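tokens incoming
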């Protein structure tokens, strides 16, 4: 029996907007300082991922307005690595917050370093590194709803 990816067949898209999910929470474990103009990140087709408690993933910003599932992203800035303290399901379009301030919307996922970690790409009005933004180890990361004060 062949596996059917529900995103290829479009089955899953109608369910995403109707799914109620709790917020994903985490905290920064490493602050990054690298910007690259020609990174070539290949965002996967799937617009959702489950992030489990105790996993560590990388947050990356881009200012490429067409960044999204199944696209290549070149202009990136590494923000941080963060540990999940409350797992959940996340989806493209979810707001991403650090210390309660929105840094952008989730644009997609790159699996270059899997199974070690995902590159979680965030579309922001301006790409920036964690060092440029003044983030620190222990700062709070939230993905989902429930915060105000936009940086975008």
């Amino acid at each position: 029996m062949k596996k059917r990816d529900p995103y290829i067949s479009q089955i899953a898209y109608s369910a995403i907007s109707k799914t109620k999910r709790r917020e994903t929470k985490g905290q920064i474990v490493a602050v990054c300082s690298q910007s690259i103009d020609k990174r070539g990140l290949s965002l996967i087709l799937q617009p959702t991922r489950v992030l489990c408690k105790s996993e560590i993933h990388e947050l990356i910003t881009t200012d490429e307005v067409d960044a999204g599932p199944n696209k290549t992203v070149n202009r990136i800035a590494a923000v941080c690595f963060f540990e999940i303290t409350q797992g959940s399901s996340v989806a493209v379009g979810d707001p991403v917050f650090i210390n309660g301030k929105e840094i952008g919307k989730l644009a997609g996922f790159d699996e270059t370093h899997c199974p070690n970690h995902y590159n979680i790409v965030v579309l922001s009005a301006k790409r920036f590194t964690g060092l440029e933004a003044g983030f620190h180890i222990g700062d709070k990361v939230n993905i989902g709803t429930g915060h105000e004060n936009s940086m975008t």
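note: Helices lie at 13-16, 130-133.
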